[in-house]
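Re: folding output
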Amino acid sequence: MTDTLLVLILLAVSAACGWYLGRQNTIRTTGKRLSRMSTTYFRGLNYLLNEQPDKAIELFLQIARADRNTIETQIALGHLFRSRGEVERAIRLHQGLVSRTDISDADKIVALLELGEDYMRAGLLDRAETLFTDLVRLDEQQEKALRHLLAIYQFERDWPKSIEFARRVEQVSGESCAGLIAQLHCEMAEQARRSGDGTSARELLLQAAQADPNSSRAGMLLAQIEAADGNPTAAIRLYERVARNDTDFLPEVISPLLACYELCGDHARMRAFLAEMLERHDGVAPVLAMARLIERDEGCDAALEFLGKNVRERPSIAAQAALIALAQQATDGPARTVLEVLAVSTDDLLKRAPGYRCNRCGFGARSHHWQCPSCRVWGSVMPVQSAAMK
């Protein structure tokens, strides 16, 4: 069963329950009519279960036309239209509900919220912003309205307003938005850095770290700034802290971190850190880095032995590709030709596999995104740790 179908069924059940409970005291006088409507509801549910949403919509429309008081049904229909991409139809339905004078204020507020979501789906963000701002001012459904406004300002990349409304959501809901606020400060810091304002970038990153002391992104950006300013020792401390706090980000920091070790000439600390990460991180990044270090210090044969052992213990295509590349250096004749074929096919597999995946919606990407382009969640896109890559 698809997620969309499940949503439709839940909406229909919700509408049916609201209709049923709201009419229990009239059953005796209008029993036959209610029985017919109840039958229609269950026919609609049956259509949904059999993945025939068009027929279900027609039946629910019949109910809505037969009894204008079935507000729940009409709200559910509007939500259903929007989920199917029929946004104009949803807008007309919800606008009609909002303009009615014979429904309760509570129902009208629900219809206004739905209408605001319709506007957002249609890309009419100015209308949605005005509507949700009015709801906040009226202190009606404040938390939902604030969350929608927060989403709008993020979409518009208005980071100062996004931070303001994230804090307001915190106040109203009691839910921490520390991670989000840190990400928003980091967005502003990256903008400042691109424009050449390093002082503002540092200040914004310190604010990000204050909001979320464990922010990997803030730590990585501060490390980049320190390295660019000629402070590799400070950058090393920051990169190491990120890797220890969140080993999932080790693949992101290991290359610049190794470069900083080289600048400082601190090979002992580099090797000790990689040995620590081999114990703590299941992925291939520390294995490949250690193999390169062993090759440089001890030669190709020692690196081959190290990689061969780790490929058996942690099978991965990336490690196999490195093993094949090393073996090519130590092999001549027909065996080298075979290794070249294997190298090409292995590299092709790696190129086709996504290097990153969102742990919320499953979106795959070749490059890292701090905000998932698909589900818009911050910090959910991580380096892939599947058998194909790790």
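--- second protein (sequence, then structure) ---
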Amino acid sequence: MKTGLFALIGLLLFTGTVLSAGGKAEKTPADWASVREEDKVMVEGKVRQVGNAPFSQIVITDDRGNDWYPDEEGMALLKRFEHQKVKVTAKVHLKAMTLPNGTELAAQRILINLKLEE
């Protein structure tokens, strides 16, 4: 009986997490590790330029040190905020990353339809 109750509670908690991740933008900063394709997220962090010319990119680095990569439109919007903290909402696209030797890396978190929050 207790096992069934714990299973039901676990299922309800899991379902609630899935529903909150897929629908409206989260009210708390997104968890980099658990975000999925097409999730709507809120990201808070510092805008930085990474890489070397001509291959430099704009990223938002959150408080945990995770990088979120805006799409081209988002980069154009965020360029003027370099070295500043921002809060944005966006939809996530996961871009697979593989090294030339075949080693798979964690997927790059690309932010699309990025909107700057107040």
